[in-house]
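The material for today's practical consists of a large collection of protein records. There is nothing in a record beyond a sequence line and a structure line. As an example, a complete record with its sequence and its structure tokens follows:
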Amino acid sequence: MAKGVLRNRTVLRIIDYWRDLWAIGNLSAVAHWDLETYMPERGAAVRGEAMARAAGIRQKLFLNKDFISLIHKAQKEKNLNDYEKGVIRLLSRDLKFYEKLPPEFLKDFERLTNESTVIWRTAKEKDNFKLFAPYLTKIFDAEKKMADYLGYKNSPYDALLDQYEEGLAASEVETFFNQIREPLKNLLSQILQSDKHNKSHFLERAGYDREKLKNLNLEILKLFWSDQSRFRLDISTHPFTTSFSNTDTRITTRYHKTDFAGSLMSVIHEFGHALYDLQCADTLQMTPVAGGSSLVIHESQSRFWENFIGRSDGFIRAHVVDFKGLSPEIRRYVGKYGLGGLRDYFNKVSPGFIRVDADEVTYHFHIMLRFEIEKGLIEGKLKAKDLPDIWRAKMKEYLGITPKKDSDGVLQDIHWSHGSVGYFPTYSLGTFLSAQWAEKMNLEFRISDLEFIKTWLRLHIHQFGSTYTLAELLKKNKMKFDPSVNLNYLQKKYAK
């Protein structure tokens, strides 16, 4: 599959061996997807053991002396092309990971997170933090050990951030949040004080026919991507996307009794992730650079589709009739208030408890809260058992609201049960980057623009997979990360 872009003999020998590692990783990803979707609850322990042993086998294969020797040889090779350099960069990172983490630690971590995922799901359904608290303590203890094994210069949290965004440090995240915190606070204050502001919207409370929304979600996915043989849509407690190749990508969403946009926007968000992998070049499949490894780039894709497509007048206008068909009460509302009422619904700004349902302005306060909690836990300044109270205090500080239920607070996200500590900051960084992609395209979205947008994203981002780091990709597109672009966009949009 890599024929044409990988030509160096040493790199080709590396890829030939690495395919066994890829196969184990690919099948492990299928098992993780099954864990989130269809696996019976009591299967967690056995699945965790299988995954732990698969992780151990993968580490053992990676640490084969001949394979390591090939990687070291390739590191010294001259005249490697960009794709070959990308392969060696990523494998060198993996080598550091596997050399520094003890095999038993990796196995135990896999067992813990598999079981924790199921326990978290139950704890959220029952609104019972005490059920999940012991597992959360174990997870953050394990994350501290991982940071110590991997090593760091300043904060142990740096070692974990680096797993999701190469080279990202806590100090950089703090600098970024310091740049955007006050402007967002000021904008939110202006919006909340406006005589046009409404705390809630009728459609947030309106029921809908679940089967009709499911069909609409599928129709919108067909509109975005006509080849339905390459992905599927399923249901999970927390929406996510898993890609096994550019011919097999899985999206999930969730359905509540009211507020149809919650499910719809999750589908559009996850499609952004899926499209990144669907449009990765065929020649990169079954190589280390297939798909996106930078979570900031990945989240810039999902948030681009969610905010610049899903919330746009062009998208809403094209689906007015579809929205009216979801229930009689929605039909009556849209019949009375039309496009303007729907626009207000999709773009309403108001502090809420749930991150994935948050608007473009308040969203980042949800991320700041999680960043501060994660950093505090990893640096030993906070304890997992105290998180419900800490969470409520920070929600009050940032958004002026306090969740009454832990399922609306500390239990709402799946990430910690997976051991994904250090992921959250990439959501905000990616969101701000998404505004720069929109600016590059000079976007004022209409349905007729879909093919142009997909082509632009493929040519400038998707086709390269993980070949380039975030900094390298921005340089290739003659860009620098600039938070002012998104701040200006938000100010201009909500000044209306």
Summary: The domain at 170-494 is CATH 1.10.1370.30 (Neurolysin; domain 3). The first helix runs from residue 9 to 37.
